[in-house]
Amino acid sequence: MNSSARIALALALAAIALLFAAGGPPGIPGAFADGPTPKKPWGDKERKAAVAFMQKYVQAKPADRPALLAEAAALDVPADQVAKLAPKAFELIAAAGPKSDGKGENRSKEHGGRYLLQNQSRGTGAQAVPLVIGLHGGGAGVGDAGSAASQWSGAGGKGAICVFPQVLEALDETEWYKQKEQQYLLALIEEVKHTYRIDTNHIYVVGHSMGGFGTWSLAGHHSDLFAAAASGAGGPIVAVEGGKGTRHEPGQLENYFNLPIWFFHGTDDQQVPVEPDRYADDKMKEWKYEHVYKEYPKIGHGFPPDGVKPILDWLFTKSRNPLPKKIVWYPTRTYHTHSFWLSVAEPVGMPFYPSRIEATRDGNKLDVTCKPGSPKLSVWLNEKMVDLTKPVTITLNGEQKWNSVVTPSFADALESIVDRNDVNLWFPARVKLY
Asked: What sign does the dihedral 254-260-264-270 (CA atoms) show?
């Protein structure tokens, strides 16, 4: 073959290659290749299928939901449709969930516990309203929801729906600390959210005596749920040696990083020692946590001379930031495996030696540290946190784990929405750091 023939052959081969790249000769679509895969159409039929799946997922038992998420991917919901489906998901949750009877006195649908309800009519309008959970005092065989309803009824004047639960079993002074009781309280919050329009950035927990202990524990272990807390004549779990607090339950105080608390105690309290509250005050001052602590002489185990009005006035100035730029979290409950924009699949060391997780975000850069142990961590993202059109960088214990764009996912959004049932705290995207 002479040089002219070789040149002609090369030119012909090049032209054929261009035709393959273009998908075939003009006027003969797909003659050589199909070209880029076209997007599937998205219309009423596809949306109805997605809504039907959401309903199936919402109504499924929690244990069956992980397997269902694999089906969500097959629906191939476009990323730009994920947020548009979110309102329908919340609507389905409200319709499917257990609802309060809405009476002055009710029974929890899931646990059967008695609770009192005040100002519930305020939650039936178009405007979402605050929610106050008031925990009563007591002990072995003692304690009634009516006492908390009387002590904290002023919260109703702030426009809030008020819920005053009664312990399931009055066995001892630590009832509200127990996981069963706290799961009952969380289920009760959900029951009220299913029934009324609750502003999830304005949920508060308050309590006195045993209820004060319960406030410290419930809010500390579930700090991403509340805007603020108030405790009287109670305290966190603190070891007292030689008349002084020496150490505390891991995480219960640290988890207040994003949660303001007001607490008070009588210096002459003969029923509950003041030292745990003093210890908490010292620690929070050391860590620069937002809090108010007041001691009063000559009130014994009672309330301040000016009552709880100043506390409620302060409480209702606080609003939860659902997407804080820094999180300090000790996961200490196996059933509550998320905090703000973090979650753990398999918590480590619960409840006595939990991992300390600290996370910060700055634009599209997020940094997470976790010591000790290596829990299976996920970082959840939405457009209020990061620019989802640009790469996101995530490091874990100094090692870069992710540096890429994160695409919204129908499965991730649905899991997030159903797990939290919180219109102010859901995420269309996640990055698993394991």
From this structure: negative
